[in-house]
Each structure stands twice: as structure tokens, then as C-alpha cells.
């Protein structure tokens, strides 16, 4: 099967975790914007009916998913070929990395992390100029330049610098 590469499809491939069950396409998130974007893209890109999208509460997170064999295979193919597909810094790569960050990224005082990424993901990110070590992003500006325009999480007006504490941010705001 030849995957159709479109920016939205690449974002969904990065966003959707490796499925827990066969033919499942889904995301587990605590962010309502990511959840709404996933639902909207599933309906627009893949013509999934709203009643086919399932939502389960899991502690403080929600698991939003649907079952569709063709879509699951298409997204799995994109993920399996990510090293070859995403070599240049274009909108397709930016959307894939944005989806990857929205699904697995987090901010902390020590920096920006991509939790649970595979060695294959690290190679693909390195090909795009984003260096990671044990999930920690070394060059935040490169990540923001590539995926910031496409990511829900990175779309904030300014990225917090890792060394800023909450008190310093409050003082700056006053």
C-alpha cells in the first residue's frame, strides 16, 4: 500500500501511538486541544463518523480512538518508513515531528523531553537537525523552528527557557 503523504496525515502518524490493538488509531492525552484536533482530523482526513470515535477516561488522561484497518495500515507504513520519508525540513516533516511532540513531548525545568521515543525516531530527528539524548531535546530552537507552527503544544508565543523558574516568570509578568 502506498501511503498518501499530506501534512495532516503526517501529523496523525506522529500523533498516534503504536496501537495497543490491531487496527486501532488513537491518542492518549490530557490536553483538550490535542483531543479536539485528533477528532477533527479523523473526521476530515479519513471520513470517520463521529459516532465511531470512542473516548475513555484513564485517570487524568483521556484515550480517544477509533478502529479502521486501512487508516491504521497507512499510518503504520508512514511510521515504519519515517527515516527515509522525513529527511528534509519541510511541512511534511514539521507536521510529523509536531504530532510526535504533541503525543510524547513535555516541558520541565531541565528542558524539553520526548518521552518513549524509539531509536528510529532519534535517527529521524537527527536527520532533521534535532539532537536528542535519552529523550531530552538538546537544540530547542531547531525543534521550534521545524514543528512550532504545526504543534498544539509548541504553538505557545514563547517557549519557556529550561532555567526559568515559576517565580522568575511571575516577576517578569509584573
Walk me through what this model shows.
The chain contains 8 helices and 7 strands. The chain has 174 residues and is of the alpha+beta class. The protein has 2 domains: 7-80, Roll (Endonuclease I-creI); 85-153, no CATH class. Strands 1-3-2 form a 3-stranded antiparallel beta sheet. The termini are far apart. Mean pLDDT is 86; it is low at 157-174.
Distance between the termini: 56 Å
Oligomer: single chain
> Helix fraction?
40-55%
Poorly predicted sequence stretches spanning 5 or more consecutive residues? 157-174
Remind me, CATH topology of the largest domain? Endonuclease I-creI
Strand content bin: 15-25%
Write the CATH homologous superfamily of the largest domain: Homing endonucleases
Q: How big is the Rg? A: 16 Å
Number of helices: 8
Q: Major sheet, described briefly?
A: 3 strands, antiparallel
* Total of domains: 2
Report the average pLDDT across residues. Answer: 86
Overall geometry: globular
- CATH class value of the largest domain: Alpha Beta
What is the CATH architecture assignment of the largest domain? Answer: Roll
Amino acid at each position: 500500500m502506498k501511503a498518501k503523504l499530506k501534512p495532516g496525515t503526517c501529523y496523525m502518524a506522529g500523533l498516534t501511538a503504536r496501537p495497543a490493538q490491531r487496527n486501532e488509531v488513537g491518542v492518549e492525552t490530557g490536553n483538550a486541544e490535542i483531543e479536539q484536533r485528533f477528532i477533527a482530523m479523523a473526521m476530515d482526513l479519513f471520513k470517520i463518523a463521529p459516532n465511531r470515535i470512542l473516548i475513555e477516561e484513564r485517570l487524568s488522561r483521556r484515550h480517544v480512538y477509533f478502529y479502521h484497518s486501512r487508516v491504521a495500515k497507512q499510518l503504520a507504513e508512514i511510521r515504519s518508513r519515517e527515516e527515509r520519508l522525513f529527511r528534509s525540513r519541510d511541512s511534511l516533516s514539521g507536521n510529523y515531528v509536531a504530532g510526535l511532540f504533541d503525543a510524547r513531548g513535555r516541558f520541565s525545568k531541565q528542558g524539553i523531553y520526548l518521552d518513549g521515543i524509539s531509536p528510529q525516531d532519534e535517527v529521524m530527528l537527527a536527520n532533521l537537525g534535532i539532537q536528542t539524548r535519552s529523550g531530552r531535546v538538546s537544540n530547542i530552537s531547531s525543534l521550534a523552528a521545524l514543528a512550532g507552527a504545526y504543534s498544539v503544544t509548541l504553538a505557545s508565543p514563547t517557549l519557556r527557557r529550561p532555567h526559568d523558574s515559576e517565580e522568575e516568570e511571575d516577576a517578569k509578568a509584573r
